[in-house]
Amino acid sequence: MSTNNHADNDVITAYKDAPARTVEAGGVTYAYRELGPKGGIPVVFFVHLAANLDNWDPRIVDPIAAEHHVITFDNRGVGASSGSVPDSVEAMADDAYAFIKALGFEKIDIFSFSLGGMVAQALVMKHPGLVRKLILTGTGPAGGKDIDKVAGTTYYDILRAALTRSDPKEFLFFNRNATGKPAARAFVERLKERTLDRDAPVAVKAFQTQLKAIKKWGRSAPADLSKITQPTLIANGDNDRMVPSVLSEDLHRRIKGSELIIYPDSGHGGIFQFHDKFAPVAVEFLAR
């Protein structure tokens, strides 16, 4: 008989096995998954542009879920969540807040990537008391230099991917060089590890509306990020073509006491390319 609590309580710590659940809030049905030991402050994951629940790298989720209650979710109009995608990051943050409140949480940690990091910033600014710790990866601030160019880069790479019958993320998230190409393929394969109960694909209209929201965010007035007093971990690759790497440095300068990790020879998906280095850092940051 195992004395390991995880075995006895049947705590799921592999993202591929996390049950698909739904919750109602404000007339919207939100699709989400949860795993890891319950109790304590949950870590809510905010996903990227054009992504659903199946887009999280299990090599990042699983190490965090070994010690924390992890929740991933589809915001309104995304994947299996009902409703339509709002055309502003701030409205996405309002939906995320409604979802978190519907689950009954008073305090959360946030893990965010790309568009998710923008939504996370907007949420923290509106509801500072809700968030204990903040992880911002592959993202940038409102009014950040060249964020409004994300759409052009994205469409260009979707076209390049279509021509080579590959996944657009291989172009968007990774360098097209000797280290980037195999890392890209490995990442795309990991996303297929879950075979049952996969999420609904993201509709083209939802994706286009998200791009519109990112453009607005890029063109809006810079937010006063000195208001963010939560411990914050910021990470990216050194060659992010989607949300330029300098924006991670910008966030780091403006969020007092934040920590910054820039991974070498990697792009927007630097944390996925370096998951073996990054996951332990994230776990340590959350445990502190």
Automatic annotation (TrEMBL):
This is Pimeloyl-ACP methyl ester carboxylesterase. The lineage of its organism: Bacteria, Bacillati, Actinomycetota, Actinomycetes, Propionibacteriales. Residues 43-272 form the AB hydrolase-1 domain. InterPro entries: AB_hydrolase, AB_hydrolase_1, AB_hydrolase_fold. It holds the Pfam family Abhydrolase_1. Transmembrane segments: none annotated. One of its GO terms (molecular function) is catalytic activity. It comes from the Bacteria.
